[in-house]
Amino acid sequence: MPPVEPQGKLDQFFLLSQDLFCCIDFAGTLLSINPTFESLLGYQAEALLGRPCGVVVEPRDHPVIEAALARVCRGEKVNAFDICALAVDGRRVWLEVSASAGEQVIYVIARDISRRKAVEKQLRRNQRLFRIAGETAHIGGWYMDLAVGLPIWSEEVCRLHDMPVGHQPTLEEAIAFYTPSSRSRIQAVFTNCCEKGISFDEELEIITQQGRRRWVRVIGRAVRDELGKIIQVQGSTQDITERKDTERQLTLLERSVESSTNGVVIVDAQRPDLPMVYVNAAFERITGYSREAALGRNCRFLQGIDTDPATLAQLRKGIKEQRDVHVVIRNYRRNGAPFWNDLYISPVRDEADVVTHFIGAQNDITAQREYQAQLSHNANHDALTGLPNRLLLDQRLAQGCLLARRYQRYLAVLFIDLDDFKPINDTLGHEVGDYILLEVAKRLEEELRPWDTVARFGGDEFIVLLPDLAHEDDVLQVVERLLARVSAPYWYRSNELRITASIGIATNDGTIQTPRQLIQQADLAMYKAKRRGRNTFQWYTDELNRKVTERVNLRHALQQAIEQEQFELHYQPQIRHSGRVAGVEALIRWYHPERGNIPPGQFIPLAEDTGQIIPISEWVMETACRDAVVLNAESATPITMAINVSPMQFQRPGFLDSVKQVLARSGLPPALLELELTEGVLMDSAEHTIQALQALRQLGVHIALDDFGTGFSSLSYLKRLPINKLKVDRSFVGDVAVDSRDAAIVEGVVTMADKLGLEVLIEGVETAEQFHFLRTLQCDHFQGYYFARPMALSALKAYLKTPLVVVASQESPTSL
């Protein structure tokens, strides 16, 4: 097909245009091209004319050409579009194409936009790189036009504040993200930048929308127009939280090293002679050398001519082999004083595993050895007296047994306990108590041989070991000297003090299997000396051990009896002068499953000592009151229930409330309950006791003074005690009919009680002679085997159903 010539045969525009110009038919065939087309793409017109226009277009853009050609053929307007053309040399040229239809042809103008496309591509690439950089380094951009006054945040700035992407805050909201301590600073520098154009670079802390605290680096600068007026402030915000954490950790590490009690030295392994480049404060304190005097020098200046060559060789070998090394080396302080340096050296390697430095940690173990010696002494000696303690005592006890067994000698153990030492601490103070303990320790040591041992066992207890005794009796003269020396006067600030000691003695020939048993044996003997009046001594015996063992076993059995309720109550009637039953006394009985009947005289004193009397007494009170309700329900006349109250139970806080509760639970009227107390209970803390008794009397409960005449009660107290009854002890009744002195005592008690308005009950009436004689004294009540032995509740019910008449003869009471 011949080329189509432009109007006017090679129109000047066609020839001179800087844009590509071509004509195509409606099928897309090239009819003509201008010189620019040829020069830009490198094609000759002869090679292209008559061919489809798509031959110079990248294949992926063919659909674009076809769509535009179809629109032109339909007479529709075609907007400019971009395609990528292919040059002869393979280059890609971006063209912006415009097309319009003529009568028989389509005129196409294409403008080279490759430079613009390259710029756009670079811009997109830069934007992507900036976005990646922002996301990676946590750096975001922001700006604020002063005319608008609203900050514009990038995506990364939004993320830093835990805000959704695209959030645009007000200036006040943006400032509010900063912590109170940082808010005033950012406000000030931002204002100066807006008003004066002063750039800022600050590290501040923010609190994000999710409440997380972050450190950020905020940079801002002012933007001016052509007249120099500030029109905008722009800047960046970078998350530096990780860096801040690292800095804090480094600061903490540096402060830790500086505050360490161990000397720390860092030497440069890359420089000749390994000079020191860092020493901490502990190094200065230990060696006496300042940092200025030490830095740049090799550590060998701390050594002396007597430093062990083998130690130096070990140190140098470890450094040469670049490994950890530990030596104890003799060094010298700046003042020439020697010290033992416990030195650890470790290499520091970089990423390439090259040793760049050595770190040395030194410790002055001269002081440590002294400290360890002091610790060893403290571990084996009492802090107050300086005497050996239990640990060292055990060692010397074992040695003493070994020597006694080897040389057929005796070993004696003395357990010394000061008598009534606690009141000294309580009344005069612990300072005086400590003085006494120090003096006792000194006196004990002065009375013993150099190879004997005095140890403080604890509190006011001392142990004396006497090894190498020829005879067991040799210990006696030592004990007597110790008792005399301890009891001698003590002078504290011109005041004379007195104290005594009780000593328990245990001896052995060294054959004992467990040496510590000697201390236990001496301890048992010491308690026996306490019970014998104190300021004396007692030997350990097998009989003593048997009694103690029995006491321990009985205590265990007693606890089982409490838990398993092995007790029961028996009741002994109390008879009026007329012969009728006035009341009963509750008496506890314990029948052990294996031991059988155990008398109260055996287990009650033990229960008083151990505190087990409290649950026992509570059980007795509860059970007796409950049984009293049953008895009175079946009796025509009131029957009083008499219950013995232990001193510990009576003095226990809340005793009155416990009595009220028992009465309320059982339903027993208070007037039918009689509590029996001994004189010792009533005379201890008399004023408090009187108040407690008055409260019980106001409650309606009767009070009886038991075992009257056997204690040391004062008659002046007796007249003040709010009691109802005196119980004359059985010790005055046995011979009352034949012994005028017993008779006089009983008669005097009865007369006195009558004058004081008190009832009298005579205990231990066992014969008709006793009963008839006592009746002549006008006694109110009687109790004893003559009338009835203690009996179980069922037997008591039967007894009460049989009326008694006391005959005038000397026969036993007769049941009607």
UniProtKB/TrEMBL annotation:
Pfam family, one: PAS_4
Classification via Gene3D superfamilies: 2.10.70.100, 3.30.70.270, EAL domain, PAS domain
Signal peptide segment: none
Boundaries of every EAL domain copy: 551-804
Organism domain of life: Bacteria
PAC domain location: 200-252, 323-377
Residues covered by the GGDEF domain: 409-542
PAS domain: residues covered: 24-76, 249-298
InterPro entries: Biofilm_reg_signaling (IPR052155), EAL_dom (IPR001633), EAL_sf (IPR035919), GGDEF_dom (IPR000160), Nucleotide_cyclase (IPR029787), PAC (IPR001610), PAS (IPR000014), PAS-assoc_C (IPR000700)
PANTHER family: BIOFILM ARCHITECTURE MAINTENANCE PROTEIN MBAA (PTHR44757:SF2), DIGUANYLATE CYCLASE DGCP (PTHR44757)
Name this protein carries in UniProt: EAL domain-containing protein
Organism lineage: Bacteria, Pseudomonadati, Pseudomonadota, Gammaproteobacteria, Oceanospirillales
